[in-house]
Amino acid sequence: MRVGILTGGGDCPGLNAVIRAAVRKGERHYGDELVGFLDAWDGVRDRRTTPLSVESMRGMLPRGGTVLGTRRGSPFETDDGVEHVKQSMSDFGLDGLIVIGGNGSLSIACRLHAEHGIPIVGVPKTIDNDIEGTDLTFGFTTAVQIATDAIDRLHTTAESHDRVMVVEVMGRHTGWIATHAGIAGGATAVLIPEIPFDISELCERLTRRHERGRFASIVVVAEGAEPAAGTLEMEEKVYDRFGHVVLGGVATRIAHAIAEQTGFETRVVQLGHVQRGGTPTAFDRVLSTRFGVAAIDAVHAQEWGKMTVLRGENIELEDLTVAVGKTRTVDMELFDGVASHFFA
To answer: Best exposed site among 58, 179, 180, 194 by fewest CB in 10 Å?
Structure first.
């Protein structure tokens, strides 16, 4: 078979490991020829490709980013976008397409298959861990480890200067990274999009902590966290061309409020894209590899309209429709259970 592969949306540790695994099993086991589309759907539209082989993917297992390049966008943005996809599939003689992406990319893949019959298999990826249907997405544990390492280092400087450190991590709609990094890093408080926060309650908690003689605190904030109505004035939201709120900066506003209400010296650390770059953890390399193998197997089984998922210890296939228009939010039993005992 001839199989196309593309990566869409934001970059994520483990993308190259997925591609490598699909290529290795496809070429060595099935005798496939694999073609990579450059820069996501833009590459499909413009017919920009690169051949993928076992040889070309050597050394890619630990490498971050994606050798194919990635960006946001959709063939549905233009009237002839879907026709470009069909024509590219025909021109390159492709029997199927593997789409590796997050909620947006998988929604596009689902629609292309359901409405236009394009043979597609999806692979879910996001450091945010917010895709329905799978227990975990690759890239998440890497992002958590990076955030945890940063928090570990911030503890010592916070203690040296009797400071409150407000650490902003990624998490547009969910607080998976913030929750796990907060638990692993021994944070004083964690603010997530799922639960609007009250800045006064946070300041009271920090004050009580300092009254007990603990003069250093770490507050972990997901970038999508928002205050409860009327508790903290925020700047007016700005949107990008895809209709997404431009995030980043909530930690700065929170830090200013903490300093004003408590008088504690407060500093901000925004980890930003550091969480998405660099080499994936061993766990993510293994999960990515398993997803890549399962994806090429699904292509040969003609399991179109499906995506690879992790269920417990097993890799399974799930309908792409399960992920469309949904967001997998933080398990409140985990958050509340841990928060009530450890965040203080």
So the answer is: 58
